[in-house]
């Protein structure tokens, strides 16, 4: 199998294993058995167990960014862009529950690399959201787009965590909850023409 395909296979199986067993309890022996390669192959590709987890989270960060970018690309204006980006976030967390669970509980993993990946994901989404606000908006000061973006990202993060125990809350409903709260604060700062 070509190396890029093998790496993708390792990351997919690691994501599932780490979510099933917990990162600390999962072993590299288990991962190598699931993948069907020796541990040295995994170490060669990723350096360590933390390296595997970091790569899993980096893959999720890239996927989430691509999903939100694609969702916003066809939007008809700022309100539609916000709705689409929120829904894309919650749909992504549903489709990638294992990766989301790992990110969601990263603080308990104790790895600086993991915390860096989770921070990078949040920063990436906040930067994307702030850029949307700057494109459509009329901020009162230069810090407002970033501050509002962080509010939106924090709300999404908390609603996604809450949904872990509320599987009946659809991505559409979750997006609507966040939208209803944040749009009222954004509406007067957005160019609706």
Walk me through what this model shows:
Helix 4 (49-73) packs parallel to helix 7 and helix 8 packs antiparallel against helix 9. It is elongated and about 60 Å long. The model has no long low-confidence stretch (mean pLDDT 87). The chain has 193 residues and is an all-alpha fold. It has helices at residues 3-21, 28-35, 39-46, 49-73, 78-95, 97-104, 112-136, 144-163, 171-186. The chain contains nine helices and no strands.
What's the short version?
With 193 residues, the chain is mostly helical. The protein has helices spanning 3-21, 28-35, 39-46, 49-73, 78-95, 97-104, 112-136, 144-163, 171-186. The chain starts with a helix and ends in a 7-residue tail after the last helix.
Features:
193 residues, elongated
Topology:
Layout: H1 3-21, H2 28-35, H3 39-46, H4 49-73, H5 78-95, H6 97-104, H7 112-136, H8 144-163, H9 171-186
Helix pairs in contact: 1-2, 1-4, 1-6, 3-4, 4-5, 4-7, 5-9, 7-8, 8-9
- Radius of gyration from CA coordinates: 18 Å
Question: What overall geometry do the principal axes of the alpha carbons give?
Answer: elongated
Roughly what fraction of the amino acids lie in strands? Answer: under 5%
Total strand segments: 0
Q: State the order of secondary-structure elements, H for helix, E for strand.
A: HHHHHHHHH
| Main sheet makeup | none
Measured distance between first and last alpha carbons: 53 Å
Helix content: over 70%
Runs with pLDDT <50, length 5+? none
Helical/strand content category: mainly alpha
Q: Quote the average pLDDT.
A: 87
Number of helices: 9
């Amino acid at each position: 199998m070509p190396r890029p395909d093998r790496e993708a296979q390792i990351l997919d199986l690691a994501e599932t294993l780490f979510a099933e067993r917990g990162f600390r309890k999962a072993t590299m022996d288990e991962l190598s058995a699931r993948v069907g390669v020796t541990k040295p192959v995994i170490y060669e590709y990723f350096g360590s167990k933390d390296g595997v987890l970091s790569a899993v989270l980096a893959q999720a960060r890239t996927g989430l960014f691509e999903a939100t970018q694609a969702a916003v690309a066809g939007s008809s204006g700022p309100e539609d862009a916000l709705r689409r980006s929120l829904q894309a976030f919650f749909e992504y967390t549903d489709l990638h529950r294992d990766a989301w669970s790992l990110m969601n509980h990263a603080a308990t993993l104790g790895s600086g690399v993991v915390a860096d990946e989770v921070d990078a994901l949040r920063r990436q989404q906040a930067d994307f959201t702030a850029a949307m606000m700057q494109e459509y908006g009329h901020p009162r000061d230069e810090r407002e787009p970033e501050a509002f973006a962080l509010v939106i990202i924090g709300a999404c993060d908390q609603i996604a965590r809450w949904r872990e125990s509320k599987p009946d809350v659809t991505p559409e409903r979750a997006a609507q909850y966040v939208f209803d709260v944040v749009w009222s604060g954004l509406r007067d700062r957005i160019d609706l023409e």
